[in-house]
Amino acid sequence: MDNFLTREQILKLRQEHRACKVKRYADRMKAILLLNSGFTYEQIAEILILDDDTIRRYYVIYKSEGVSGLMKDLYVGSQPWLNKEEIQELESYLEEYVNISAKEVSQYVWENFKLDYSVAGMTAILHRLGFVYKKPKIVPGKADPIEQEKFLRKYTRIKASKAKEDQIYFADGCHPSLNPIAGYGWIRKGTEKQIPSNTGRQHLNLNGAYNPESKEAIVIESPTINAQSTIELFEKLQQKQKSGLIYFISDNARYYRSQMIKEYLQKHQRVKLIPLPPYSPNLNLIERLWHFYKKKILYNEYYEDLAQMREASMTFFKKLKYYGEELSTLMTERFQIIRPNFSEINL
Question: For residues 42 and 50, what is the distance between their CA atoms, to the nearest angstrom?
Fold first, then answer.
């Protein structure tokens, strides 16, 4: 098929193509121009990474509606093949199972409803139903939502009843490796960005506490995270906060229950250890800070040695106020409860 367009039609298609900012519309115009130049449906489908039935459909639409027909969302306004009950069943299936491709969903529809959807057609339906393509979030499988709710009620009571000089800290350890973490970034198309790495398993042991009221973090480095380094962190907090209670919220690591910690807390009753429910990192604010730190300091960064990485890390925590705008939305006291079905509810 060639030379079916007049000179005026070719000029109009080219003008509209140059002015078009929507890629799918521009591809449709290119398909018509290529057909006019003698390319086959199959050749054009390969060039535009589409299927040849789609190219045939573009030709039919152009012949009946012209350029304006090519600039429509072709699936909008058409009647779906799935009826209301089938749509509801499909939505229930999609809520329960994560499919890695639209092709898998099409296969499910074929097996259950004997309706044959193309990948493009199923993708359009998924978008219309409010589904997007993204990774699921990995969460602890043993999280107890009831215990999480109990902790949040307790946290609310502590905040409401504490004296002005009392302070709350969320605490945990972090063990960043000397090797860089590869993260997404803007790289010129067709090229690769390489980041050197180190051999061995060197890492830092950081023990920290974050105050959501002052927006400050106290972070120390230790040979290991244990009872001794935790007591060192207690001491740092007491040096900084001269009066009032120190509510120290942490996970259930074994060293927090050690005899050494128990004896220390008996002698220093300003420090109140508040354990989080098991398997609940979602309730520990400092976990968000560790993640932010890694993005800013470790992602796509190469450090020659551990001393260089240590300096960059400790400087980051000393100058945390410079990230105030970014942290203002991240470090809020809005927590997520992990439910048995792995959905999340903001509180």
Answer: 9
